Amino acid sequence: MPEALGTALATPGLPWLLLAIGVAGIVRGFTGFGTALIFVPVAGIFLAPQVVVGVMMLTGLVSSAALLPRAWGQADRREVGLLALAAVLTVPLGLWLMTRLDPVLIRWCVAVIAAITLAALISGWRFSGRVNRPQLAGIGAAAGGIGGLTGLTGPAVILFYLAGQSVAQRVRANTILFLAALDVVIVANLLVRGTVTAGLVTLALVLAVPYLITSLIGQALFDPRHERLYRWAAYAVIGLAVLSGLPLWT
């Protein structure tokens, strides 16, 4: 354990990783989303794709433990369950692609997916109509595949929920619950593949400390009356993370 801790503390760019995960925790606490959109572009500068995905999922499990109790009672669990079931089927494909594609190409995928997500949110795009069950399953499947490839577990579902007409409280609860379920699915697949090492777990625990603290701070700050302010603050942080993580700079 001491050796693993020493290796984790010697991780290249660790101060930036700690800053990114801390800010991401605040954003997720008061919006229910945004962790991967903030952390993954920055982490990709310093870490290999499989390490980024592993750390992102393991760290997410820790914060979910703090946010789930409130979200469980507020979420539409049947809807989230369908999303999660579809994601289970596509996570292995995403993880397989992650091991086959060039790391720089994966970083570009992260940048493009995050930028498209951010642009859609900023534009105020709204879905009109009702998504049926097959379409809902398709959204979950897309989230699982993208999450396994890049660590960006939320964009497909974030766009679906934020584009709808649900109240902020329900949106926040649904995304928290789904992202927690998807974290479990991806970690289980990584365990089967044997890619979860002591060093990976230790690094995730080091990052989980500020993430857990700032997630609780963000949750305490959440007030539905200030939904618009929270969203625009989240958009600004996500935009900065995407720009800093572009492969053009490193």
Task: Describe what is shown at a glance.
By secondary structure, the protein is an all-alpha fold. It has one domain (14-244).
Which descriptors would you attach to this protein?
single chain, 250 residues, mainly alpha, 11 helices, globular
Structure overview:
The chain has 250 residues and is mostly helical. The protein has one domain (14-244). The protein is 82% helix and 0% strand. The chain contains eleven helices and no strands. Helix 2 (14-31) crosses helix 10 (198-221), helix 5 (77-100) crosses helix 9 (168-193) and helix 6 packs parallel to helix 8. It starts with a helix and ends in a 6-residue tail after the last helix. The mean pLDDT is 85. It is a multi-pass membrane protein. Pfam families: TauE. Belongs to the 4-toluene sulfonate uptake permease (TSUP) (TC 2.A.102) family.
What is the topological layout?
Blueprint (H helix, E strand, L loop, with lengths): L1 H8 L4 H18 L3 H12 L2 H26 L2 H24 L2 H21 L9 H18 L4 H9 L4 H26 L4 H24 L5 H18 L6
Organism: Roseovarius tolerans
Keywords: Cell membrane, Membrane, Transmembrane, Transmembrane helix, Transport
Family: Belongs to the 4-toluene sulfonate uptake permease (TSUP) (TC 2.A.102) family.
Mean pLDDT: 85
Number of helices: 11
Radius of gyration (CA) equals: 17 Å
**Number of discrete domains:** 1
**Proportion of β residues?**
under 5%
